[in-house]
Write a structure and sequence with these properties.
60s Ribosomal Protein L30, Chain: A, 6 strands, single chain, Enamine deaminase RidA (YjgF/YER057c/UK114 family), 2 helices, about 25% helix, alpha+beta
């Protein structure tokens, strides 16, 4: 495994992710922002943040698999959420939990959540991109 995740002493512990990712692999994998489209390009969970987060994470997993990687290889996630406010965190975490259950993993690499005004199409509420490192 090319990624080691950790929470260094002196930084707050955040359950949803680890503060630091140490990459030792030799190949970088950049996954484009994944939205809540199914394989046919149909939006999943219109108006449902948790359902869209779940689909985004499933799409990231599919993209990673296509590159010969998995969530254990992810060094960093960036999440964009339309009209973000802290009250949306439970729905966000629900979506991550549902995807985790389906994938059999708990994705906890360092992550950045960014509130945005809009995404590519009005029905998309979230977009998730990833950087992975593989040997």
């Amino acid at each position: 495994m090319a990624i080691t995740l950790m929470n260094p002493t002196g930084l707050p512990r955040v359950d949803a992710y680890r503060q630091v990712s140490i990459a030792t692999g030799s190949k970088l994998v950049f996954i484009a922002g994944q939205v809540a489209w199914d394989a046919d390009g149909v939006t999943v969970g219109e108006g449902d943040l948790a359902a869209q987060v779940e689909q985004c994470y499933l799409n990231v997993a599919t993209a990673l698999a296509g590159a010969g990687a998995g969530f254990d290889d992810v060094a960093k996630l960036t999440v964009y959420v339309v009209d973000w406010n802290p009250g949306k965190m439970p729905l966000f975490l629900e979506g991550v939990a549902r995807a985790s259950a389906k994938l059999g993993v708990t994705p906890v690499p360092p992550g950045t959540l960014i509130g945005v005004a809009a995404l590519d199409v009005p029905e998309h509420l979230v977009e998730v991109e990833a950087v992975a490192v593989i040997d």
